[in-house]
Amino acid sequence: MKATAIAPANIAFIKYWGKKDEELRLPTNGSISMNLSNLLTTTTVEFSSRYKKDEILINNKIDEKENKRVENFLDKVRQMAKSNLRAKVVSENNFPKSGGLASSASGFAALTVAATASIGLNLSKEELSILARIGSGSACRSIPHGFVEWFEGNDSQSSFAQSIHPADYWNILDIIVIFQKGDKKITSTDGQKLVKTSLFFKERLNNIKNKIENIKELIKQKDFINFGELVEKEALELHAIMLTSDPPILYLQPKSIEIIQAVWQWRSEGLSVYFTIDAGPNIHLICQEKDQKQLVDKLQKIKGIKYIVNSPTVGTRLTKKYLF
Ligand code: DP6
């Protein structure tokens, strides 16, 4: 049977960076995120005896390394379903493949839901999140709706993501400022392997549980200013860890710094905007919907950038549209 799923990418307010189990992708800490309405992956999967081997087409391209990761994931699905059928997978993003745009999160979330439906596995949301996590850690947060918490857990069964608020709970936006195209040089999987070499990492883990409680409380209270400040500090802490890893990882570019300084300038002028950054140079601007126009007016004056406006959205869902 053919099945198609649509999955959103997500932006983490408290980040996942580091694994205590590489293969199972068990994180060293929990994380908190929001699904993004305009970064979507659509994936159609069909398991059938007609296919002699897995046929995988992502964004109209055949990329050996990426396809291997998808094949390994399909093996896991086959193992769960006790099947040896091969599959055809066609997947498309509605956004450019750019540094740090979370394509593995939406990609593996869509693949999880489409592949399990196609092979006839009837999994709960929790089980889907666990399976997506094994494909790519952050993908487990794209399964549930809206604002999401990924529990660190101590084994595979206890490390999954759950919705903490629905998408329409809080009308904040993530406006992603994009200026770098193409793949980043160090993948987030590889970057994370270095996390323990940073002197700051231990200190981060000492504080992380408090941070997660704080951010959840600020979201609950819809306290945008304190929320934004914590989100920004968290992004800088993540990049401090990257910079102090051995060898160091530098994802930021001159344009990233220019945008960060612009955000601080705009804030000093009274515009309530904060930033966060993932494993790439592009900058995510977090603002309230009421300030969107003012912020977009400012962005339109900056040369050499594009931007994508995202509101919080639902999680991964099946659809009747098929890509083949
Ligand atoms: C910086 O989920 O891409 O975006 O599990 O190795 O596939 P793998 O890593 P990935 O890491 C995401 C890192 C991050 C922070 C976050 O999304 O929490």
UniProtKB/TrEMBL annotation:
**Enzyme Commission identifier(s):** 4.1.1.33
Tell me which residues make up the Mvd1 C-terminal domain: 175-302
Q: Which InterPro entries match?
A: GHMP_kinase_C_sf (IPR036554), Mev_decarb (IPR005935), Mev_diP_decarb (IPR029765), MVD-like_N (IPR053859), Mvd1_C (IPR041431), Ribosomal_Su5_D2-typ_SF (IPR020568), Ribsml_uS5_D2-typ_fold_subgr (IPR014721)
Please give the family membership noted in the entry.
Belongs to the diphosphomevalonate decarboxylase family.
Q: Report what the protein is called.
A: diphosphomevalonate decarboxylase
Q: Which NCBIfam families match?
A: mevDPdecarb
Gene Ontology process terms (BP): isopentenyl diphosphate biosynthetic process, mevalonate pathway
Which EC class does it fall in? lyase
Task: Answer whether the UniProt record assigns the keyword Protein biosynthesis to this protein.
Answer: no
Q: Name one GO cellular component term.
A: cytosol
Keywords annotated in UniProt: ATP-binding, Lipid biosynthesis, Lipid metabolism, Lyase, Nucleotide-binding
Domain Diphosphomevalonate decarboxylase-like N-terminal, first and last residues per copy: 7-161
Q: One MF term in GO for this entry?
A: ATP binding
